Amino acid sequence: MTSPRLRYSPLDQLLVETQRALDTVFGNPPATRPNPAASTPDIELDTDERRHAAGLMRINHVGEICAQGLYFGQAAVAREDATRAHLLEAAQEETDHLAWCAQRLRELDSRPSLFNPLWYAGSYALGAAAGLRGDGWNLGFVVETERQVEAHLDEHLRTLPEADQRSRDILRQMKIDEARHAEHAEQAGARVLPQPIPSLMAAASKLMKAVAYRL
Q: Is the backbone of residue 134 left (phi > 0), alpha (psi -120 to 50) or beta?
């Protein structure tokens, strides 16, 4: 049974969302599950391999920043408590992904994207806009987002340096979680997003990946 939604004043809601944004972008939120790569040896990579792996993991870290923004924006305007609970549950698992990717970036002697505040703000605005159209659209964005994330995780699993099994273990678990989020959203009544929305989302994702790989 879904617990009743707390009713916040507009100021309280603003403070909650601001704290979430600060924790996501500038904090280091802890994972609630063990890192999937915890028992995998960290093999030494050469300079080019390390740089490429770091670029891919930075993209994945940005993807989790975007997921947090999207889901928190959607949850803030969700009409049904069940939809809001679904979005916040997915956001919690995305927090695990965020922590795992951040740890792997540190291991690769790299850093997150310099544009994380921008990625979060844009995703939050998109999530809120989707949520205002109704919960079916809200959940439809979850499905389309997760399906596109699954596709780029597959691409990264193919192109990571062969020796980088730690990154692979993280991405495999992320892919399992993303597929589950999409399936749950479909079961909860997600609408199929009409064109050109999926194509625009894919184009925005392509731009984000091109920038985040380097910056």
A: left
